[in-house]
Amino acid sequence: MERRQFLSWVGVGMLASSLPFALAACSQTEEQAEAEGDTGDNAGDPVAPLETTVDDQGFQALATREQLALGPVLVQSATLPVFIFEIDGEMAALNPTCTHRGCTVALQEDGTFLCPCHDAQFTTAGAVTNGPAEAPLTTFEIKAEGDRILVKVEA
Question: Are residues 86 and 138 in the same domain?
Answer without folding.
Answer: yes
